[in-house]
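## tool: complex_structure
## caller: assistant
## args:
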Amino acid sequence: MKTLWQRLKPIRLRLLALLAVVGPGIITANVDNDAGGITTYSVAGAHYGYSLLWIMPLVALALIIIQEMSARLGVFTGKGLADLIRESMGVRITAIILSLLVFVNLTNTISEFAGVAASMEVFGVSKYISVPIAAVLVWVLIIRADYKLVERIFLVASAMYLAYAASGILAHPDWGEVAREAVRPRFSFEAGYVTLAVTVVGTTIAPWMQFYQQASTVDKGLKPSDYPYERIDVIVGAVFAVIIAAFIMIACAATLFAAGQRIETAKDAALALRPLAGPYASTLFALGLLNASLFSAAILPLSTAYTVCEAFGWESGVSRQFKEAPIFFSIYTVLIVVGALVILFPLRSLVQTMLISQTLNGILLPIILIVMLKLVNDKRLMRQHVNGRVLNIISWVIVIALIGLTVILVLTSLFPALSGGATGLPPLNTMM
Amino acid sequence: MAYLSDLIGRLVTDIDGERVGRLKDILACIQGQMPHPEVVAIVVERPGGDLIIPLGEVAVLTAPVIPLLKHLKDITPYEPGEHDLFLGGEVLDKQIIDTNGVRVVRVNDLELARVDNRFYVLNVDIGGAGLLRRLGLGKMAQRIAVRRGKEPPPGVIAWHDVELLPGDQAMRLKVPSEKIAELHPADLAEIISDLSRTESSKLLDSLDVKMLADTLEEVEPDFQASLIESMPDEKVADLLEEMAPDEAADLLAELPQDRSQELLKLMEHDDAEDVMRLLAYPEDTAGGIMTTEYVTVSPELTAEQAIAQLRATAHEAETIFYVYVTDNEGRLVGVFSLRELVMAKPETKVSEFMHRRIVSVDLRDSQTEVARVIAKYNLLAVPVVDDQNRLQGIVTADDALDKIIPTAWKKRLPRMYH
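## result:
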């Protein structure tokens, strides 16, 4: 007679296999809820209540489909996305995509440091203290400490994202209304609403995510036999990220929107939550923002430097000397230093820079998706693991929708009168 | 001299100047008399499908418009053989191993040279100049070089210093090439740490067990464990037999219990026993880092007999610079150096020239303590004894220091994402 423990063995083994594989998808999704994302979701909730909630399930679907393709590319080719682009499309396309990526990631890094500044200001710490400390911390931590350790710390800390769920619950939303709004599409053509919708999509599905997740899938050495588990990892990660995003919206909608209070930054949201939802909600909100900003500020510059060096065959690696890997260290350091300096010395043209960044983000994403679709449908690379027809159709619908959204974004940024002023570009305000 | 990237995309015409298509790729044979691959055919992209034309039918390969010697219908297409390499498809933009510089680099361009009317792949361009040229900025690269008043940095490596990665083409690298086989295991380990998992396991698969064991001994146990994860058990068992018992024990300690038990069963009895004994000690103690492959002699032997015994038994020993003297019970009673043995008169008894004051460490001493003892007494190795002073193993200086000062590339091994 088998004991229960023995009977459970197959299930236990499967669970262990899943745990060993878990990581790339969940980590990527966690980094995704960064300072820019949190600001956007807060402003969306504060300005439009639950009325933008309905796009979140669609965003989750798009995110799952895109990230699943990148994981599949990583598992079945054993190569990073930058590698594959370089090997299949040559130097020019690689150079164009990667220079866009570096620029977009620079502006993302800027907003991460803005997030550090904003969250610490909630606790009364000046940005002139918090930002330099954060920059040095991030630089030293990654260069001098074991990356594995750093990642584990952040992963544990990312449980802090549950802080947003807690903030949302503390805000006592009307759950019936939340449920109704989550499935009821609303088409408003008010410029601010449209732009904010575009920004929510753009900040949740960001171009760096495909590079980062695929590289980490490859680096983890996942084999084709691990793929079913990796797919679970991707889906769980994407759903988790979008649920957290929805909770941020709900927290701000239930309190700020209901009270008629308008905000411009995540810091405003944290401060404004205090009288409405109690001091805990406010503190949790700020801590979540700090963790998100630090996590992303640590990962973005490093992953950018790795991606670029990989594609061009330059020496990379954090334990090399500067002389051995000058380009790697330059990219990494410049991203952090510039990212932090911009926050300390706000330039007049900052809004302009962030505007360009949002637009480039929107332009880069469809390009990367098209490239990915080409790669994932390449029989020589993927053999029988190419996309099915249904998946291809859905993917192309997503690509076309994203291009459409980008066109809208470009039009509204070129003709700001259409969007009714600055309300349409909330992440920019993190900087101010 | 011509660059592959310049040639690709050029128009190809037949003998009458009629357009045939565009040059898509160039085929070179890697098995000729020359160490450099010889160009044998060109691939022409046509609306109806690619056409491979033997180089013999091409009038001038390096012309701005490449003319053929015949009409299209008179040309027999070339059949690629197993030693033919698609330079554009399999080499350009791919990663390769620079065996001279011991690193993994990416191919930015290939330099073709004409010798006696044949074309050979001369050099591989891995530098920034090659990148700029591919971006259409070749003139700028030259201008920068001129302004700096010096030649552009070399950025090229000769083909004979290049080893291709296994990649998608299955047949190559099944046998390790001489270039790889000649690398020092430490260098090979460094290359492996630069590669992705898929590529590194393909490269490891191409090595023989001996080379594989030497290479694995150069990397940290947790990285070793991930490298052998997907190898079949029989191969890993052979590998463990080949490795020094202390290294094998370290590796087994990193594996899941089920698998390490399975592997121990597959190993030959003697080797498995040595390893199991070592596994019993915590990793960070003298017992955990010692090796059981040392040489002992009896105090009754003469110097001549001792040398004869070393010749017969010391093949596997990690070091023979120190010879340990044990009594019938296995207790450590003396030690002498190889130098003392060689200098002694052949008929002198070991007990007469051995040292009786022996520096040793206990099985449970920490590795830091072991390293301290080795440093303090300037030893090459230190014997490890149990409570009854019975010799259990030795710790060599490199193993003791290894745990305290990891080599530079060992530090790099923790990879980025996990």
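## assistant note: Residues 22-429 of chain A form a domain with the Amino acid/polyamine transporter I fold (CATH 1.20.1740.10). Residues 419-432 of chain A have pLDDT under 50 and may be disordered. Handing back to user.
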